[in-house]
Structure of Lipoprotein:
Amino acid sequence: MRKSISLILIASLITASCGWRDSRVNPRNWFGNSRDVPVEVVDAEANPLIPRQRRGALAREERPDASVPIASVIELNVEPTTSGAIVHATGIAERQGAFQARLVPDNPELEPTDGVLSFSFRVLYPNQATPVGSEFSRTIHEAYSLTLDELARIRVIRVVAAGNARETRRR
């Protein structure tokens, strides 16, 4: 009887330790709050005359990526899941009507550079002119899922927009 009571007491204390606000054991504290960081503005684009490798003889021609970086990133959150984490980013588009938002990893193999995994927040705009509208009507939400194996090598997650970037660090 004493052993079962002591085991229950120890198990409850260990479980309660995960609830501390700044505990590293608590999965909700794996990444801190995001912060605004400066971004380099690069005008150089990839050479469109160099063909990309095809998948096979019967593969279709891939359409060129017409997406552009969103105007700014205003929020970045990383929420843990049982299989890894979900990166949530919120951005403000230049005008209304932006669609097909994506968080595109800078490295397609998801290999972090010096522990930093960087994403580009990209959207498409309609061909016809659309009004600018309010900030609320231009707000875009997007998410990207990461596995536990991918998270093991990542210390910082960064989302880059046209005008700014936000990053969050692992605690």
